[in-house]
């Protein structure tokens, strides 16, 4: 029995690690208290999850229809392709369906019709755990564990070395801040420890994601504005994490997406305009109106 205890104990901690990961992700995606009803396929396709192993993935939404409740369709035929390594931005009014798109990509729900595809295959063909390992998210508001700041970063890839953790922190521009803390990487953070500012938490999330090294990145931009200096640091860190990675940005400030390969303008569950920043400005439609409303050129300088 004693011989069995070791491995069982190990399995137990792996299991609880997976549960924590799922709970955390659900929390980040605003899905707490939602019942999850998707199932793994009987014969899942293998998929590489890390950028270092397989490069960026292709993401496609193909005529996706979706409803949370049968009586009300939320997405009415959404289609787009994010080529490997490209950046696609989603903008639009509140309730248009932007977050729903990221939830479907993670397969928190299944589509009613059409398909969500990763590397040319329906996400329903993969194991959920693999799918979620292949996609990283930097959420609007990061949940910190009541643990050390080092653990909070290492959580991106449990098993990473201290050196890898510090390298990720450097790239996320939070290493120097961590060194200035009383106990450095061993400083306790979270509700029962040191409280971090919104910008610091976001950089922890970025460091975590750099360490996770996913092939696809979802950035859920914060609605609340940070001060200009913090904002610039965050933007620089985000550039690092999204470089070479297929990136989906749910954007609120248009100044952060002028360089996107494609911008999708959503309204009431449909893509009503699409194109690059320049093309959309020239079209003088809804996007151009939003741009003017946000202060036009001035927005890029703020
Ligand atoms: P915002 O910019 O305000 O975050 P959004 O474009 O991300 O909005 P979604 O969160 O995708 O919008 O929501 C799209 C629609 O789906 C909204 O009308 C919303 O009320 C509805 N909705 C979202 N989550 C659920 C849910 N769990 N059950 C039922 N309806 C939902």
Automatic annotation (TrEMBL):
Subcellular location: Cell membrane
Domain of life according to the entry: Bacteria
UniProt domain ABC transporter: residue ranges: 59-293
Name this protein carries in UniProt: Metal ABC transporter permease
Lineage start: Bacteria, Pseudomonadati, Pseudomonadota, Alphaproteobacteria, Acetobacterales
Portion of the full sequence shown: 304 to 605 of 605
């Amino acid at each position: 029995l004693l011989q069995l205890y070791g491995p069982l104990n190990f399995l137990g901690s792996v299991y609880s690690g997976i549960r924590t990961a799922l709970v955390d992700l659900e929390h980040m995606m605003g899905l707490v208290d939602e019942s999850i009803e998707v199932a793994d396929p009987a014969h899942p396709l293998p998929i590489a999850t890390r950028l270092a192993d397989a490069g960026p993935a292709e993401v496609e939404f193909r005529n996706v229809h979706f409803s949370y409740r049968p009586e009300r369709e939320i997405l009415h035929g959404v289609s787009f392709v994010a080529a490997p390594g490209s950046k696609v931005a989603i903008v639009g009014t509140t309730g248009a369906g932007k977050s729903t798109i990221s939830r479907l990509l993670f397969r928190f729900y299944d589509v009613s019709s059409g398909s969500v595809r990763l590397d040319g295959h329906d996400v329903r063909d993969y194991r959920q755990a693999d799918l979620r390992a292949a996609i990283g998210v930097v959420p609007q508001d990061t949940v910190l564990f009541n643990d050390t700041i080092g653990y909070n970063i290492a959580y991106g890839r449990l098993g990473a070395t201290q050196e890898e953790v510090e390298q990720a922190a450097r790239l996320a521009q939070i290493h120097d801040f961590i060194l200035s803390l009383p106990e450095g990487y061993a400083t306790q953070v979270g509700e029962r420890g040191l409280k971090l500012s919104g910008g610091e938490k976001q950089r922890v999330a970025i460091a975590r994601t750099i360490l996770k090294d996913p092939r696809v990145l979802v950035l859920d931009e914060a609605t609340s504005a940070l001060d200009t200096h913090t904002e610039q640091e965050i933007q620089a860190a985000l550039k690092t994490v999204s470089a070479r990675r297929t990136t989906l940005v749910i954007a609120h400030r248009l100044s952060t997406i002028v360089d996107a390969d494609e911008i999708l303008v959503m309204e009431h569950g449909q893509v009503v305009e699409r194109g690059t920043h320049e093309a959309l400005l020239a079209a003088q439609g809804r996007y151009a109106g939003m741009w003017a409303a946000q202060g036009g050129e001035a927005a890029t300088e703020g």
